[in-house]
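In practice, a research group might receive sequence data for several interacting partners and want a quick structural hypothesis before committing to experiments. The following worked case mirrors that situation: the sequences arrive first, and a predicted assembly follows.
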Amino acid sequence: MTVAEFFGCGLIAFGPSLAMFGLTIATDPIRTIMLVASAFFWLLALLFSSILYTAVVQLQDYLAFGVVFSVLFQELFRFLWFLLIQKAEGGLKKVSDGNMQIVENKHILAYVSGLGFGMISGAFSLVNVLADMTGPGTIGMKGDPKNFFIASAVTSLAFILLHVFWGILFFNALHRRAYLQLAYVILCHMLASCITLMNPIYSVTIPTIWILTILSGVLAFIVAGGSHRTIQSAFRGRPQVLQVNADATGNFTQVGGM
Amino acid sequence: MNVERLPNERKLAICRKYFMAGFALLPFMWAVNAIWFLKEAFWATPYPEQKQIRKYVIVSGIGAIVWLVGLISWVIIFQQNRSNWGATADYLSFIIPKGIP
Amino acid sequence: MASKVTGRQATLLRVLVLSGTFFLAAGERVKNKIYDEIQGDMACFKRFNGTHEIGCTSKFFGNTGVLHVIEEKADFDWVYEHGPHQPYVLAFTPLFLTEAVLERATDSGKVSGVVVVVPEDFDPETQLLDGFSGETECPDAYLGLYNASSNPDYAGYCRKKPWNPNGTSMLYTSWEFPIFLITNQTSVNNIQNCFEKFNKPVNGMPRDWPLCSLELKSNMYGTTNSEVCMRRASIGPLSTDNFCDPLYDYNIWGTLKPMNMSEEIPEKSVIIVAARMDAATMFDNISPGANSAVSGIITLMSAAAAIFKHKEEIINVSNKNILFILFQGETWGYIGSSRVVWDMEQGQFPYKVKDDVKDQIAQINLTHIDYFIELEQVGQPEDINKLYIHTDPISNANPELKNETDNLLNILDEASNLVNETKFVRVRKDVPLPPSSIQSFLKHVNISGVVITDHEGEFKNPYYESFLDNYRNVKYEADNETSDADLYHKHINNVASVLATAIYKLATNTHKKITADPELTNELLFCYMKNMTCNLVQEYGGEMAKHLEPKPAKLYVSVESGERYRSYVTMYLMAGLLGDEVERNQSDCKIESIYNMNHFYYFSHLHNGTCVQTTVRMTEAMSPAFLIDDYDWKSGEYSTWTESGWKLTKVMIFLRPSVLEEVAVVCGGVVSLVLSVIVVHFMNSRADLLFGLSTPPAAC
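A structural hypothesis for the assembly, expressed as tokens:
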């Protein structure tokens, strides 16, 4: 019966990432490969946090412990992934088949990596819940909050977007050696994750997480070169500055990122 | 394999082979033949072998449709009457559904 | 993948994986927050005979419905006339478990399942005044001695004066929805609480979603009748599927003295003492049969134990032998007894002759039978001192046989006078036999026999073949194995004493008062009626005893692959009662061949290990119908009952959301997708403007 809940919550959480993937990633094989590879790095982070969790038996009862170390591992592996693609830049140039855009505009790779992290973490956080939604029942019989499914989906969505923004900010910080920006990403991740420990007080957790999401989104937008003026010009639809490469289909000037 | 690039006599030979193979109770051969050579038979620029190809395509097509109709009717009839036919139907079944008469 | 992650792994995932974790409660699967699995092991299941199917099945994925607890009759009307949330799953106590209620539920088309809940304070005696029996009014009549074709004089007797007037035939009806019995108090409360919290109408007005619902899963594989499903089980490349299986168990029996094939058994020398081993209910996993089976089983065991103490005396003066037998599957068309008769006729009881086995057991055939004494329901006499003796009017029309029967009746009378506790009253001569195993024999051979019961006409047992035929029904009050305050065990012990005394006289032709052991009787009763993990079973039950639960014995006959611990345990108990201790250690205490006249049983928990030599054994109790080639399923000669196969039975309780809420969630999802497609497309196509590409990022 509640296959409806399954599809509804699934679309709420994964609709935006689906759109991003379909419109900006799937068209380019290199981006697709980079997305999958970055997702793999997130899985490595998961593996190592799991090993740590299993090893430290005494602390298994404290969720906070798991959360903190999980966040640190994720950020560590984001850094390792960054190092790897720095090294691989030469190779990337070779395989990119003349399309140098992905190498030239650093934000594209950052965005792709962030989306990779976001999609895989979103999948892991929600799939269990989604799978349990397919049956005929809904939550609430045992006094649990009735909006658990929606809240889970909305939180998942926020984290997927956060990972995209963090990806852009993190890479940019490393490129420019802006350590404050780096610290912001890690602290923001830590704060957002730890705030979920307060669930199911959704009236606190969800607004907080979404404020962080919007804040990070704005920062990422600015870092990637956006401002209120560029927004205006985008809405007017006319290039204010001369675009040498602009062509009718927009293919060539396509730039990922939000 | 792109049929269009083949010499005309090869086209005819392949079309005939598929047509003949269909008689070995292989209606799928006819279906493939009909669809694969449809363009050659009707829309390609005329050439001498085309007439024969067209004939094979039409007959293959009809044969495939007859088979399809026959199979669908049999499936419908069998499913409708399976429980009434008793033992005969059970012996004809590969997998007997559980919990259904 | 995710759906397979359970338990500890799930904890791990939930904790670690995510920074985006939504901790509902540490480490618990969301499923466990939505669903509660409640007691679902007592499902009504399907059985088949040669022409019909009976019982219940759910749909493949289970039947779901909104829970409605019926407290009074008017609640039914509310559901059928006003209830807007169909389909419903009705929950009620056995008070409402009648054919009329179930039929109306079927006809209403608003009911997708029924759960029968038995609260702790449910007292059948004060609440179920009309009794309750799933059986027909004339149990087993169709396969008995008196069907219309053979005996028109007696065929109609039961229809005029039913043996089982409380019979509803509910057991033999095919229901369109699953029915579950729930006795576990946690589950009962769970249902009640969920109903009151979410579903109970307020002033007759239905409540709003979400509503408490039940899912009943008991999908049966078999259909139509035994012929169809046995055929289907045997054909096809995937014939391992159990569409249905014949009812199957083992007759348990032993003789006073071993019968060696090398010595001829004289004609009319074997006195058979029989009782019925099985009972049935509509539901799986519960078949207490306190009066319908246990009363007879224990009387027989007690009498056998008492007689065995005088084994040497009897053997020395007499060439008679005594065969104690517990027939299995008698509820379902006399499976056990008809199989014994069939085997005897085929010259293969207990086995076909084997060429190379020493000390082989002798074949017994129908001519060897001397007397036949059967114990049916003996536990609920109206007058505690009075039991009834039934004889067959047809075979006793033969004067020779009548003489023998009169002799038997006199001996029983004398025995009851000697013991002086229980009096035996003869039932009128023109009354046919009540449902009993001897009918299987009388269909094929004229023997003199009696059936001992607690009823003259109709059954005294108001709950014949129902889950209420338990220790409460017979008022067995002992709380432990050694309590001797209870009156019931004394009654059973008296009957056993009379029986033993009579058998002694039949075998030796001398009178001697034999008294059965009341402690043993009580221990046996306690084990079968209340707790199969009792001490006696621990000591004498053999290795299978450890599989039994601390519950009353489940006496349903089941199928070949079914649960059969109680049969093994009963065989071991019989072996202990009808066996001699021998000096053998565990490794030597085993049989060389099942064809040997003596068997050896090892009791590892008895005096640090004891070996017993005995004639007790089990022989297959499956209807001959499944052994005869091209058997005509509709002939009605032998039992054709089979049981459907199934994968699981399960009951889940949960909340169901309103459709409106579901639509809203889906709409939310679609909006999320469409909005993001628009935004992403916009940003993507205007990326050059949006990110001011004329001024490339600083680091590049």
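Before designing any experiment, note the following. Chain A touches chain C through 99 residues (CB under 8 Å). Residues 240-258 of chain A have pLDDT under 50 and may be disordered.
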